């Protein structure tokens, strides 16, 4: 007689798995940190998503204080160009994805990252480092993102971003 | 999650499928050399990439991997007689050489030359590093021989094992690049297994239970780096390379040997888990080899005479609920290898990835799927060879290293990530 594990791991038994949704869409905020990333994010925004929304880090008044309290003001632009408050956006997020390009200025990561830290929101950062990106350029961007990223991906092309967001059910 | 058609694309490896073509670009492990130990030894059935084959070593020591079935009436040549430079079907005496060429049809006059019109499909089979490797792709695209470091070191510096795994290759392979499961499934074993314990790096693991992951593309696949805080503004990095389609190495610990895996499809619902240990600059000790034979480290105890694990789904993996409850074992299943296999097989023969809910720490898995799909598409549509075929992509190492906070690990460990004969591994 087969063990329970053997019986239950069969293809035949797979037919009886519960066929019902097992999750609700997560709110994922995708934020471009620089101009090349902004183009990528705006292109992604044209597709249909569950609960992903897309922004550009447009203006920040102040630098992170590192005191545990969040004291600066940050603004994002949505794809239509409307200005929206960073903290409000982060507050409603399950995950914040920051998109940067190797060699570009990613200083906004510190302010977004601190907002996420205060609001206890997970952060993932993606650096697009094409074949022409130098080690120095990558190191510069990496240094700005690393302190604020709980997961960091360095991809050779921006097509990974859409695959990642789809995989996360964004 | 994946859409159904993406899951099908990645999990189906039979002839003509995109992933099947991708696997057929490289040399893949087919058998342990010990399975064909001498000339004219018994032939061995081999099922790889959904093809039924038969391996044998002829009277001159030549290795053959041919269609399992006789061209005459479809008898399995496993029943054949391995004699006088060929394998003879016991039914009517048709005989084949290691290339699958029929060399004798006793019922036909020899002068007729009929046997020359009969040839079974065959694949090259070569021996390297204790493994018999085969290449199942088009002859004109046959790549250079395998260049993996573990297979290149002297025999006494290496131990290789294989075991049956009763699920699709992808869900087994994804376990190998899913670094975040170690803190749960294998909890406790790092400090008791003789092939892991005692390294300074283990203290970093203990001191920082929440590693941060960085996934970086490499020429051959990926590097998956897990970083933990170390002293004086430094990070302790454990870097796992993954090479397309299914090779990984685990970051080393202290002066222990280095281990890794291949996952090779048998068919779409079974795979071989190949496990190796080696040390680049020293022989393995008798105690290490004995531990590996007992199923310690990444190896698994198998039923004698087979490659089926002693703990398997037919005996509920010898689940020990008392040990689990008492805290002696987190999962209740003994050993790293079967801890992995038990949960992976429980997903079913081919897990339905349309229902999964990945999180950001799964980016290694997401990126690996992305690269596999991209490589399969480029191969099928443009004939571009996938990553991992180039021998330079195979000359890689896993690394454990302490680096300053601001250093990209791919840069800081650049030399350490390359296999260099006679050079000690970077390890902590």
Write the topology of this structure.
The complex is a heterodimer of chains A (170) and B (428).
Chain A: H1 4-8, H2 11-14, E1 28-32, H3 35-45, E2 52-61, E3 73-78, E4 83-85, H4 86-91, E5 95-101, H5 108-119, E6 122-128, H6 135-145, E7 151-155, H7 159-167
Parallel strand pairs in A: 1-2, 1-5, 5-6, 6-7
Antiparallel strand pairs in A: 2-3, 3-4
Chain B: H1 4-11, H2 18-23, E1 27-32, E2 44-48, E3 51-57, E4 63-67, E5 81-83, E6 86-88, E7 95-96, E8 102-104, E9 122-123, E10 125-128, E11 131-135, H3 149-152, E12 158-165, H4 169-176, H5 182-185, H6 200-207, E13 212-217, E14 221-229, E15 234-243, E16 247-249, E17 258-267, E18 270-278, H7 286-294, H8 321-326, H9 336-346, H10 363-382, H11 391-394, E19 399-404, H12 409-412
Antiparallel strand pairs in B: 1-11, 2-3, 3-4, 4-9, 5-6, 6-7, 7-8, 10-11, 12-18, 13-14, 14-15, 15-16, 15-19, 16-17, 17-18
In words, what does this structure look like?
- The complex is a heterodimer of chains A (170) and B (428).
- Chain A contains seven helices and seven strands.
- Chain A is an alpha/beta fold and 170 residues long.
- Chain A has a seven-stranded mixed beta sheet with strand order 4-3-2-1-5-6-7, with helices on both faces.
- Chain B has 428 residues and is α+β, with helices and mostly antiparallel strands.
- The chains are: A alpha/beta (170), B alpha+beta (428).
- Chain A binds chain B through residues 2-6, 8-11, 13-14, 17, 22-23, 95, 122, 124, 135, 138-139, 142-143, 146, 149-156, 159-160, 163-164, 166-169, and chain B through 1-2, 166-167, 212-217, 269, 313-317, 342, 345-350, 352, 355, 357-363, 366-367, 369-370, 373-374, 405-408, 410-411.
């Amino acid at each position: 007689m087969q063990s329970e594990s053997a019986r239950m791991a069969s293809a035949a038994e797979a037919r009886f798995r519960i066929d019902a949704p097992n999750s609700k869409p997560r709110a994922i905020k995708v934020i471009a940190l620089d101009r090349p990333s902004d183009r990528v994010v705006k292109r992604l925004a044209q597709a249909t998503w569950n609960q992903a929304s897309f922004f550009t880090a447009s203006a920040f008044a102040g630098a992170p204080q590192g005191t545990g309290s969040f004291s600066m003001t940050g603004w994002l632009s949505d794809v239509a160009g409307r200005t929206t408050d960073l903290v409000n956006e982060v507050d409603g997020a399950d995950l914040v994805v920051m998109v940067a390009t190797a060699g570009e200025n990613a200083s906004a990561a510190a302010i977004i990252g601190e907002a996420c830290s205060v609001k206890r929101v997970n952060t993932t950062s993606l650096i697009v480092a094409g074949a022409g990106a130098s080690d120095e350029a990558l190191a510069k961007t990496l240094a700005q993102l690393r302190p604020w990223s709980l997961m960091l991906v360095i991809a050779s092309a921006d097509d990974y971003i859409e695959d990642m967001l789809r995989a996360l059910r964004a | 999650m994946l859409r159904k058609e993406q899951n099908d694309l990645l999990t189906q490896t039979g002839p003509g499928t995109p992933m099947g073509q991708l696997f057929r670009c490289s040399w893949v492990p087919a058998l342990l050399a010990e399975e064909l130990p001498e000339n004219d030894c018994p032939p061995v059935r081999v099922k790889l990439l959904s093809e039924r084959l038969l391996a044998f070593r002829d009277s001159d020591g030549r290795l053959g991997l041919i269609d399992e079935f006789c061209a005459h009436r479809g008898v399995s040549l496993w029943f054949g007689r391995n004699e006088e430079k060929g394998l003879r079907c016991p039914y009517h005496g048709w005989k084949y050489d290691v290339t699958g060429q029929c060399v004798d049809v006793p019922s036909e006059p020899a002068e007729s030359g009929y046997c020359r019109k009969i040839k079974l499909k065959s694949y090259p089979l070569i021996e390297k590093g204790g493994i018999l490797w085969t290449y199942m792709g088009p002859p004109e695209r046959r790549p250079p021989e395998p260049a993996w470091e573990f297979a290149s070191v002297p025999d006494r510096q290496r131990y290789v094992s294989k075991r049956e795994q009763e699920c699709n290759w992808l869900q087994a392979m994804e376990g190998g690049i899913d670094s975040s499961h170690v803190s749960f499934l294998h909890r406790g074993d790092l400090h008791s297994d003789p092939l892991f314990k005692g390294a300074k790096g283990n203290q970093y693991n203990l001191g920082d239970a929440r590693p941060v992951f960085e996934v970086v593309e490499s020429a051959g696949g990926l590097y998956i780096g897990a970083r933990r805080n170390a002293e004086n503004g430094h990070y302790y990095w454990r870097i796992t390379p993954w090479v397309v389609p299914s090779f990984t190495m685990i970051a080393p610990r202290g002066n222990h040997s280095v281990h890794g895996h291949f996952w090779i499809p048998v068919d779409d619902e079974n795979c071989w888990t190949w496990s190796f240990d080696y040390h680049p600059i020293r022989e393995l000790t008798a105690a290490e080899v004995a531990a590996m034979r007992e199923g310690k480290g990444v190896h698994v105890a198998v039923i004698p005479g087979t490659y089926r694990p002693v703990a398997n789904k037919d005996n509920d993996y010898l689940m020990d609920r008392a040990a689990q409850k008492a805290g002696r074992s987190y999962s209740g299943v003994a050993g790293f290898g079967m801890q992995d296999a038990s949960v992976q097989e429980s997903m079913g023969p081919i897990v339905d990835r349309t229902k999964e809910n990945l999180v950001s720490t799964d980016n290694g898995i997401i990126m690996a799927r992305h690269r596999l799909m991209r490589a399969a598409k480029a191969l099928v549509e443009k004939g571009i060879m996938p990553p991992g075929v180039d021998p330079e992509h195979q000359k890689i190492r896993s690394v454990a290293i302490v680096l300053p906070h601001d250093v990209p690990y791919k840069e800081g460990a650049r030399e350490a990530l390359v296999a260099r004969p006679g050079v000690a591994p970077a390890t902590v």
